[in-house]
Amino acid sequence: MPDPFIIMCAPNGARKSKEDHAKLPITPSELSRCAEEILEAGASILHLHVRDKNGRHSLSADSYRAAIKAVRKTVGDKLLIQVTTEAVGIYSRQEQIELIKELRPEAVSVGLREICPTDAEVLETEALFTWMRREAIFPQIILYDENDRQRFEAMRRDGVFSQNKPFVLAVLGRHGKDSQEPIAALHDFAKSFTASDTPWAACGFGLTETTLPARCAELDGHVRVGFENNLWLADGEQAANNASLVSHAHTAVSALGRNIASADDIRQMFSLKA
Questions:
Q1: Which among 72, 142, 157, 202 is least surrounded, fewest beta carbons within 10 Å?
Q2: Which residues contact 184 (CB under 8 A, 6 or more apart)?
Q3: Number of domains composing the chain
Q4: Residue 212: which residues within 8 A CB-CB, separation 6 or more?
């Protein structure tokens, strides 16, 4: 029996603006309302980006605190809040690490190629993950291609991540591309993760995203959807809001007989503190 299916939602990202979609949530109050909507639609993890006063991507701990406070006021602990450390060509890996240590979030996503770009950073990366485990911070490791996957597997076997089965996210394709070709890579990722019993989720771009919920469910994985990567429904219509994309995922996965995970389910699956 597979674990309940996790629907993550990435509602804003680092690159899009209101010009891309009027309902892109940016301010704490907008993120709070979005959190309420995606929770009702079936999401259990909110993947959170914040912006500076000019609307640009930010790793400000204070901005994160304001957004988290607003979301918690609306949904309590019914969503896990996963902050991002994504550099977007702006921040150094040291600034990413400093954010994690200052903020001490409930959950955090880290790109493997950003947090550990070469073998020279392996020991520091191991120390970071050991510290996060001690601080009860739930990490997710982001992988973009086969090279990332191979490095991840070698580091996992060597115990770098302070646990044998860390949660990973496979990113299929890239911004600005709307090809279905990345779906082929999903099976390679899934095969590898299944062999090592590693829990995983996947995300895609554009219409690629709309096919992922069912495919991930069939392969015993999980999914991330949302405006960060995609604004469109499967029929080619623009989604009204992030909850529309979550609802699509919920419907597709439920039709396959997979139970949908709550935040409490995830805490139990990964032995997290409430």
A1: 157
A2: none
A3: 1
A4: 172, 183, 186, 202, 203, 204, 223, 225, 249
Here the CATH number for the domain that contains residue 40 is: 3.20.20.70
Domain-located, residue 231: yes
Q: In which residue ranges of the chain is pLDDT below 70?
A: 1, 175-182, 274
Look at residues 264, 243, 192, 247 and name the one whose alpha carbon lies nearest to residue 221.
192
The model's pTM: 0.96
Contact 67, 31 (CB under 8 A): yes
Residue 124 lies in a domain: yes
Burial label, 41 (beta-carbon count in 10 A; 0-12, 13-18, 19+): buried
Give the closest residue to 110 by CA, choosing from 129, 127, 123, 124: 129
Whether 2 maps to a domain, the answer reads no
Q: What is the pLDDT of residue 174?
A: 72
Render the burial of 45-83: b for 16+ CB within 10 Å, e for the rest.
bbbbbbbeeeeebbbbbebbebbbebbbebbeebbbbbb
CB atoms within 10 A of CB 180: 13
Q: What is the DSSP string of 202-236?
A: EE-STHHHHHHHHHHHHTT-EEEESTTT--B-TTS
Beta partners for residue 140, in sequence order = 109, 167
In a domain, 230, yes or no: yes
User: Which structural domain range is residue 17 located in?
Assistant: 7-269
Query: Strand pairing of 57-58 and 138-143?
Result: unpaired
Q: Which two tokens stand for residue 63?
A: 């901005």
